Amino acid sequence: MGGVLGRAPLIGGMTGTSGGLVEIWLWKGDSMGTRSKKTTAATARTATKKARRGAATEFGMDGLKFERRHTKAGVDPFDTIEWTHRSSAIKNPDGSVVFSMDDVEVPAAFSQLATDIVVSKYFRKAGVPGTGHEVSVRQVVRRVAHTIRQAGEELGGYFADAKAAQAFEDELTFMLVTQRGAFNSPVWFNCGLKHMHGI
User: Fold this and answer.
1) CA-wise closest residue to 54 among 147, 148, 155, 151
2) Do 82 and 108 form a contact (C-beta atoms < 8 A)?
3) Average pLDDT per consecutive 10 residues, the chain (199 residues; last block may be shorter)
């Protein structure tokens, strides 16, 4: 065995990630397949792009295209819904306050329960430039949707072109901000903190 075996995405998923980098293994030519790991970001990204593009070519794929269902090109999805400012508080049964935040921006269609959940659980509470913490659902949804789009572009081969990437981000943004879909908690907690806030 020789050459690079990339533990990298082929058609749909990512495998073998460690510390935010895709692991690329170099196999030595012995029968046991002894391996040594390259850990530099440049090597990981380059090999991942090659693996993804190679798989796309093998299966006759040119990247994904997206049909818009809820959004229009050139129109920010956030501008198509009504927004309001509210206060959020989580209280114990005895009435004592566990958490509170005032003047947060949320979609007007959100219930108070939805407001309390997203603000208390998913708003980043520290390290956000300018405000110290996230103050709007716009920030939370954008850091998730834009970061996923950005990863698809940087890793290579996931979108057919920039138009498809923008359609993907806009549609995902609309579905998240209107509660048509949602990720599980670890995504909201972590996705985009480095890309959007430098954390």
Assistant:
1) 155
2) yes
3) 38 37 36 44 60 52 89 98 97 94 98 96 96 97 97 91 96 98 96 94
